[in-house]
Write a structure and sequence with these properties.
Low-confidence stretches: none
Strand order of the largest sheet: 3-2-1-4-5-6-7
Strand content: 5-15%
Shape: globular
Structural class: alpha/beta
Distance between the termini: 57 Å
Radius of gyration: 26 Å
Largest sheet: 7 strands, mixed
Helix content: 40-55%
Bound molecules: 6-phosphogluconic acid
Number of strands: 9
Number of helices: 19
């Protein structure tokens, strides 16, 4: 029997994707470096299904239909390169290697170029949704050699999640574009999680809510505009008790881990000069949480305001304001994420399909939500939309949410509850809608101390301040008249 598709790496994601593909009528060949894993899988979960095993890489390759489609689900980084190097000599021109791990997109760019030289088609695919998603329908974000797409489209779209009958899987773009979009997905995931954590902290510390009460609030929010996977699991986490009947979540060490994909997004945003502030703050919030011992020391010596018992006067209003704060901040976060994607497309010369990206994130993945249906709709109406905030639906939503958003942040700030993600979202919003920002003064400072030059506002141009020219002024009377070269971000 020859297989439609081969998968290397039988950890939890790999096994579940194989079972998913078999359920959709495909014959899959499974291989793992440790043979006992293959044997165990075939004798148990894969038993009676259209799944065959391989005893060596050579055996594995020989069992695949041409063009061979080999998916790798191994740890990102060096293991992917090591495996590619082993497989390439066994492949023929036109065969396809798909990397389904959380690889960094520059690595996928490089692999795409290197494999092209061998005539091998490379696909770097984002795979999101965890164990459950892999088994019953993940969000899949494939990019790379477009020639590979007709060969894998049917398999990918069959096994992916569906949203309103449409597969949450489309061709993303060339080279590392698939992994790029997955990276931004993960950055947004960090942002969504941080926003939810801030809302929980505010309810707990300001409102004095119990975990059960907060769970009920999230349950209610999950029926409205915030309906999403992350809100749903938060609802369940907060009502989950340990064996002693106390909420388990309160026993968990408050130091966040991270594998780096959110950090990559923030670094890339800095590289591309895009103000993706919410993801940046979400990464830094994890970093701050990790300084547990320092925070313990600081909590004893750095005073802040006490939270009075009546800090929250009207509980219902407080919860409603917070819902608006969460909603508006989330809109900002997605607007920033799509700004980054837009800039990446321009910088890397990729043609990226915004409505398809929103649809891919609509179901199956960790950030899946009702909200993404609106984003899909917005980009379908206007594929070249400059910013999500210019779409009427989102502009109206932010306008309506503004009062609650500001009140929530003001209250938290008054009583010393940190809201890095809520606050940065609002600052971005206020900055973005400011026709004039204080960067005029900043430019003057740069020119004053470093002769870095500035441009003049067209309406203020004069003989000594010509328009469209880099100008240096001798601010002190004793500085020189020579300007330094200007660095543009
Ligand atoms: C997904 C997730 C997943 C990610 C984890 C952990 O889409 O299924 O994004 O790919 O690796 O969520 O990420 P951190 O360890 O960095 O929090």
């Amino acid at each position: 029997m020859s297989a439609d598709f081969g998968l290397i790496g039988l950890a939890v994601m790999g096994q579940n994707l194989i079972l998913n593909a078999a359920d959709h009528g495909f014959t899959v060949c499974a291989y793992n470096r440790t043979q006992s894993k293959v044997d165990h899988f075939l004798a148990n979960e894969a038993k009676g299904k259209s799944i065959i095993g391989a005893t060596s890489i050579e055996d594995f390759i020989s069992k695949l239909k041409r063009p061979r489609k080999v998916m790798l689900l191994v740890k990102a980084g060096a293991p992917v390169d090591a495996l590619i190097n082993k497989i390439v000599p066994l492949l023929e021109k036109g065969d396809i290697i798909i990397d389904g791990g959380n690889s960094h997109f520059p690595d996928s760019n490089r692999r795409y170029e290197e494999l092209k030289k061998h005539g091998i088609l490379f696909v770097g695919s984002g795979v999101s949704g965890g164990e459950e998603g892999a088994r019953y329908g993940p969000s899949l974000m494939p990019g790379g050699s477009e020639e590979a797409w007709p060969h894998i489209k049917n398999i990918f779209q069959s096994i992916s999640a569906k949203s309103d009958g449409e597969p949450c899987c489309e061709w993303v773009g060339p080279a590392g574009a698939g992994h790029y979009v997955k990276m931004v997905h993960n950055g947004i995931e960090y942002g969504d999680m941080q926003l939810i954590c801030e809302a929980y902290d505010i309810m707990k510390r300001l409102g004095g809510f119990t975990d059960k009460e907060i769970s009920e609030v999230f349950a209610k929010w999950n029926k409205g505009v915030l309906d999403s996977f992350l809100v749903e699991i938060t609802r369940d986490i907060l009502k989950f008790d340990d064996v002693d009947g106390k909420p388990l979540v309160e026993k968990i060490m408050d130091t966040a881990g991270q594998k780096g994909t959110g950090k990559w997004t923030a670094i890339n945003a800095l590289d591309l000069g895009m103000p993706v502030t919410l993801i940046g703050e979400a990464v830094f919030a994890r970093c701050l949480s990790a300084l547990k011992n320092e925070r313990i020391r600081a909590s004893k010596v750095l005073p802040g305001p006490e939270v009075p018992k009546d800090a929250v006067k009207d509980r219902q209003q407080f919860v409603d304001d917070l819902e608006q704060a969460l909603y508006a901040s989330k809109i900002i976060s997605y607007a920033q994420g799509f700004m980054l994607i837009r800039e990446a497309a321009a910088t890397y010369g990729w043609k990226l399909n915004n409505p398809a990206i929103a649809l891919m994130w609509r179901g199956g993945c960790i950030i899946r939500s009702v909200f993404l249906a609106q984003i899909t709709k917005a980009y379908r109406q206007e594929p070249d939309l400059e910013n999500l905030l210019f779409n009427k639906f989102f502009a109206d939503a932010v306008t309506k949410a503004q009062s609650g958003w500001r009140k929530s942040i003001a209250l938290a700030t008054t009583y010393g509850i940190p809201t890095p993600a809520f606050s940065t979202a609002l600052s971005f919003y206020d900055g973005y809608r400011s026709e004039r920002l204080p960067a005029n003064l900043l430019q003057a400072q740069r020119d004053y101390f470093g002769a870095h030059t500035f441009r003049v506002l067209p309406e203020c141009a004069s003989d000594n301040l010509p328009v469209d020219k880099d100008i240096h002024i001798n601010w002190t009377g004793h500085g020189g008249n020579v300007s330094s070269s200007t660095y543009q971000a």
